[in-house]
């Protein structure tokens, strides 16, 4: 954890040093003019559904740092962890105050949570989607000291066929991270031992201790670990530049439908006063245009989509992801 914090501090200091040339005085003046007279009068809370040091947390802290630079307002991170993101998602749609002080870094795990675990009490559609951040394909890693330290995924699959249920893979239950493991089982006709965790950071820690054989994760979660972990496959349609030489799951299994990404966006409860919401939307969208922030997020493995520049477009894309995910749930018997 100390190593992760040191890397974050160094990153933030680097961003701060470049802030003067990155920010437009006109943009800052416009945001200041839009800001309601009575808001904010205290720090805004940016909540994250996963533990400190994980991929979501790293992204949230980078975004929060830039938000403060652009707006001059304080924003604090709150890690609302539990049940693989379910605690955070339920809080956003059922408990968070709609006053503009409670926002969060949402992710598309909310789709699976609302379809599979919300018991029809709430839906991802009950939240207000303010601004797109980025998306990042899921990676699988092995450790440099583990059972499969030098083997590619194709060879690991061969071993899994011999040792049914003996290959331990980290997942988060009832999320796209578990679905990825299930797809590998289907494509390769193997049975994996799926070990549930509450996020990427604890799964990576278990991998480092050789308690599991494979962990899911994102680049931001393994920064600073050097060659102690090795990416073996990425769940995207095309290879990812941030992990050169790492094959896609699709290429390993000669298919085109293993595409699981962590899709991140700024989310809030519905009902925020219109002037406060408009300022939040404008502020976060300007933050996400910052070239230094974009460059840093790309180093973390994130992929930007400048076309998702309005709440309506963010919502439409989330719906597209939801349709695809629901189709998978029906195909696997989770939903009718």
Question: Looking at this structure, what is the CATH superfamily of the largest domain?
Answer: Bordetella uptake gene, domain 1
Task: Give the fraction of residues assigned to helices.
Answer: 40-55%
Oligomer: single chain
Arithmetic mean of pLDDT: 91
User: And the CATH topology of the largest domain?
Assistant: D-Maltodextrin-Binding Protein, domain 2
Helix run count:
13
**DSSP strand count:** 10
| SSE order | HHEHEHEHEEHEHEHEHEHEHHH
Computed CA radius of gyration, to the nearest angstrom: 20 Å
Give me the secondary-structure category.
alpha/beta
Query: Which parts are unreliable, with pLDDT below 50 for 5 consecutive residues or more?
Result: 1-7, 15-22
Describe the structure.
- This protein is an alpha/beta fold and 336 residues long.
- It has 2 domains: 2-135 and 262-331, 3-Layer(aba) Sandwich (D-Maltodextrin-Binding Protein, domain 2); 139-253, Periplasmic binding protein-like II (D-Maltodextrin-Binding Protein, domain 2, 3-Layer(aba) Sandwich).
- Helix content is 45%, strand content 17%.
- It has 13 helices and 10 strands.
- The strands form 3 sheets. It has a 5-stranded mixed β-sheet with strand order 2-1-3-10-4, sandwiched between helices.
- Helix 7 (176-188) links the parallel strand 6 and strand 7 (193-196).
- Helix 1 runs parallel beside helix 3 (55-71) and helix 1 runs antiparallel to helix 12 (291-299).
- The protein starts with a helix and ends in a 5-residue tail after the last helix.
- Mean pLDDT is 91; it is low at 1-7 and 15-22.
């Amino acid at each position: 954890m100390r190593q992760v914090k040191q890397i974050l501090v160094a990153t933030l200091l680097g961003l701060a040093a470049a802030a003067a040339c990155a920010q437009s005085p006109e943009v800052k003046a416009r945001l200041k003019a839009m800001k309601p007279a009575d808001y904010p009068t205290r720090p805004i809370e940016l909540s994250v559904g996963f533990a400190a040091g994980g991929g979501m947390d790293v992204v949230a802290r980078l975004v929060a740092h830039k938000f403060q630079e652009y707006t001059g307002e304080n924003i604090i991170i709150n890690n609302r962890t539990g049940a693989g993101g379910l605690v955070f998602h339920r809080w956003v749609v059922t408990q968070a105050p709609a006053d503009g002080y409670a926002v969060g870094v949402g992710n598309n795990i909310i789709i699976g949570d609302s379809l599979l675990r919300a018991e029809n009490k709430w839906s991802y559609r009950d939240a207000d989607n303010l601004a797109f951040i980025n998306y990042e394909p899921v990676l699988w890693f092995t450790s440099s000291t583990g059972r499969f330290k030098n083997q590619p995924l194709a060879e690991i699959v061969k071993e899994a066929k011999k040792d049914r249920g003996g290959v331990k893979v980290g997942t988060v239950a009832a999320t796209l991270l578990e679905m990825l493991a299930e797809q590998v089982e289907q494509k390769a006709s193997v049975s994996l031992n799926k070990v549930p965790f509450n996020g990427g950071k604890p799964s990576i820690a278990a991998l480092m201790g050789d308690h599991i054989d494979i962990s899911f994760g994102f680049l931001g979660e393994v920064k600073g670990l050097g060659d102690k972990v090795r990416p073996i496959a990425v769940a995207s349609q095309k290879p990812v530049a941030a992990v050169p030489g790492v094959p896609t799951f699709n290429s390993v299994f000669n298919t085109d439908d293993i595409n699981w990404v962590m899709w991140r966006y700024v989310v809030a409860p519905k009902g925020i006063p219109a002037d406060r919401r408009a300022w939040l939307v404008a502020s976060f969208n300007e933050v996400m245009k910052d070239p230094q922030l974009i460059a840093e997020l790309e180093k973390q493995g994130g992929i930007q989509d400048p076309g998702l520049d309005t709440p309506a477009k963010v919502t439409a894309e989330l719906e597209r992801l939801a349709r695809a995910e629901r189709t998978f749930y029906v195909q696997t018997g989770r939903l009718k």
